[in-house]
Amino acid sequence: MSELPLSKMRNFCIIAHIDHGKSTLADRLLSMSYAVDKRKMVEQTMDSMDLERERGITIKAKAIALPMNLNGEEYLFNLIDTPGHVDFGYEVSRAMNACEGALLLVDATQGIQAQTVANMYLAIGADLEVVPVANKVDMVAADFDRTCGELEAAFGTKAADVVQVSGKTGLGVDKLVEEIVKRIPPPEGDITKPLRALIFDAVYDDYRGVVVYVRVRDGALRAGDRIFMIGTRSEYDVLEVGVVRMGLHKQPELKCGEVGYVICGIKTVQDVGVGDTIALAKHKNEIMPLPGYKKPQPMVYAGVYPTNAAEFDQLRKGLQKITLSDSSITYTPEQSDALGSGFRCGFLGLLHMEIFQERVERELGLDLVQSAPNVTYEIKKHDGSIERIEKAGDLPDPTVYDEILEPMVKLSVITPTEYIGNVMALSLERRGLYLNQEHLGKDRVLLSFKMPLAEVIFDYFDKLKSGTRGYATMDYEPVGFEAADLVKVRIMIAGDEVDALAMIVHRQFAEQRGRNLLKKLKEEIPKHLFVINLQAAIGGKVIASEKIGSMGKNVLAKCYGGDITRKKKLLEKQKKGKKRMKMIGGVEVPQGAFLSILKVGNEPGE
Amino acid sequence: MASLYIHVPFCVRKCGYCDFYSGVAGDADIERYIAALDREFALRAPTGLAPETIFIGGGTPTRLSAPQLGALGAILKRYVDLRACTEFTCEINPGTLTPQKADALVAMGVNRASFGVQSFEPKYLQGLDRAHEAGVAPRALEIARAAGISRLNMDLMFAMPGQTLAEFESDIRQALNLGTQHISMYALTFEDDTPLTRQLKQGTIAEAPPELEEAMFQLAGRVAGEAGLARYEVSNFARPGAECAHNLVYWTCGDWHGFGAGAHGMTGGVVTRNVADFAAYERCLSEGNVPHVPDAPMAPAERAETLLLMGLRLTRGVELQRFRQFTGVDFHVACGEPAGRLIELGLLELTPAHVRATPRGMLVLDSVILELAMALGYSV
Ligand SMILES: Nc1nc2c(ncn2[C@@H]2O[C@H](COP(=O)(O)OP(=O)(O)O)[C@@H](O)[C@H]2O)c(=O)[nH]1
Ligand code: SF4
Ligand SMILES: [Mg+2]
After folding, report:
1. Which of A92, A493, B90, B354 could form a disulfide with B56 if both were Cys (CB 3.0 to 4.6 A apart)?
2. Could you say which residues from 150 to 189 on chain B have a Cβ atom under 8 Å away from some Cβ of chain A?
3. B31 CA to chain A: closest CA distance, Å?
4. B169-197 confidence digits (pLDDT tens)
5. Same-domain status, A547 and A524
6. Does the ipTM exceed 0.90?
7. Do A480 and A492 reside in the same domain of the chain?
8. Cα–Cα distance measured from residue A85 to residue A20, given in angstroms and rounded to the nearest whole number
9. Residues A130 and A19 in one domain
10. Is A160 found in the same domain as A27?
């Protein structure tokens, strides 16, 4: 396919709110392109990890080459699959930089949602030609006119430009292919210039090592080239280049404008920077990198500990394995007074963290205790230096610093107008600053706020959903750090301070949250043979306390000769259950207790 | 010599809370079962047994007719030497005892009867789906006494859905008034896969509130105690000297042989289990095979756990010397650390010769045992 002229190529991605049908449409295009062997085509080919298929979320962007025939002419589409979720925003923008165009897919039964808007802004930022597509028009509930109205209100799109399709039935997809060819410009590039290729993804493969996805901007990339990655300052020999079809297809070279893969003996994706630029090693001192490369910073941190201390080594090996294929997870060893040896792991967001947890359970089969997640803080010391605080337990005494800063986000919420009041109340109560509102058609509105990230990760999403009967959607993007009046709330269980339960909270909410957390702990920690005191304190001052009463009657009524075997089995099960608990000051604390911080709000009785 | 347990897995009807190996059967089945028991004795005890205690349990042994009991007695005559036997108990469903059956039991050698009374309140008997009616218990006791059985136990149940503290107290007093030397009082347990548990899940009945159950447990001790029947095990109360010698064998991990389908035995700390299925039991015997599977011999830690989980149920506790003899280790070495904590919490106490649960420890005994077992840490 490589002999096709650039004018016959189209590089694009599909952007959509989750479940609006991106994977289904991608599969539809794929099956049109190839006389696909249906048996081999796993349902939703673009989402290849099991986990992704289950969650219906595309975690890792990949690219696939789709030869297309339109009116007797050969074309090559490079479809780049982008993750749909806010946690992976940076990766989305990198993937977009590999494209000239985007299909903005909107479920016509749902209308525009928060991630539709967020993705659209990213696409505009990446200078893409956007083809708006109303999907699922096969459904009775589809409302094309209303969807067009919303697109117009939000982005100024004209109804005449919106393509109607059903990814599921294939309706309108032929027309869409025509529109792609007509509207999305072919790639440009100068083959005579020295090589510059954008890395937009990297995937770990058990057999091939790391497969790096690139978009060649200038020049050409050939097997045998000695290359240099500008951002990570590392050199490699290119073993193979090619394009991805139903598998990897080796080619002698990738020319400017083309999208494909590079294999060059990289062992882990940690060594690859998404957004980095590949150049030829001989040019390493003169070439300018492509703009926009940055190492994604984890937004959310949590401590991860083996339940059984003897499994620390297995956990370390497991983390190594998982980060082979997910470079955005960071981990550093840490020691917790309460939990022993473990790792502090950084994630792009809460969803990213949940995916990680599932992978650990599934792929490593380890029992873990995870501390409640928190955001990163910064403290400004007296000498003006800035220090990052990755967990509440590390926050020093207030006398040591001038101010403490927290990460802020711009939060966008789309909601039916009738719930504006609820969304406002919830967001303002979470220290949100109202920015503006924009009407989408007559009954929906886009509200934006500036809000501390800590307040967003703190069950905001659940509250938003319940306050809008499930109708609202949200998205957020980081907008830097701001100073705030934050204090550390310390938690004591049976007199022992539990660093993993400490939290950094706005002073205004400290007492209420402390009290609410103790209530949750009281629910989570089972009754013991003795009374357990729970306390929350700021500095040395106790702000809340609770008691867990001792256990009531617990004795088997009958135990005779014939019951011994059964009773021993029961005991063995109880022993296993007990081993899964963490011992803190003689108290057995279940894993759920460490996550309970997440579930406490600011309101009394929550 | 080792004690003897004989299982009779037949009942008049299945009780709502029961998960024992038992069922309803006709006379033909019962007679085949007796024949199978005969073969089991012939196979396992060709030269006979001389137990110190015997217990016939079920099921409902008195589901057997007088002639069937006679047939069972004939087997025992052939294989069991009663001269060393000081206690021979038979479980009795009050509704099924007749003077003829009582005579058959006495002829067999029975000198102690254990009545499954459960309650004197008709509504609770119905609630439990028990086969007998409330009024029959006094009559059954009279029959037993008339036949010459003077050592009597009554089983009562408490914490039944809807039962009040006063109703339970009335049950205890009625039992005591019938002149029994021994009472067992069991908190109703919801076992998996029983009709009662299904009702609970459907919400048609509700469990007794935990505080009420605890109050009943305490009440049992007080009322029986005042009448001179002291708690000697979690659920068992007796006048001094009237404790059930057979059950004490279980609680001290002594030796006993179990005969009949589903019966367990233990010899030198090794548990044996007969298949809990009549057909398989019968087939096995007809092929000339012993119908049981011995468990693997227990490691010292497992033996310790077994002894503690049985022995701490006794108010007198576990004899430290017995612990050493049964497990090969010293109690202080095996469980010193958790025992220390439990003693500090006032749940366990050490006397020169025993380790035992305090009254408060008895109430939460399963958790106390679990704490000790954690220190032993074996895995089956
Ligand atoms: N009726 C109908 N359902 C669709 C269509 N496209 C996708 N779906 C369904 O919508 C759900 C989400 O689709 P998926 O492709 O996984 O969405 P993604 O999250 O954007 O990748 C799935 O249940 C699809 O079967 C369509 O055109 N019509
Ligand atoms: S009589 Fe005893 S063994 Fe038979 S069903 Fe009732 S409780 Fe179970
Ligand atoms: Mg998808």
Report:
1. B90
2. 186-189
3. 24
4. 999 999 999 999 999 999 999 998 889 99
5. yes
6. yes
7. no
8. 12
9. yes
10. yes
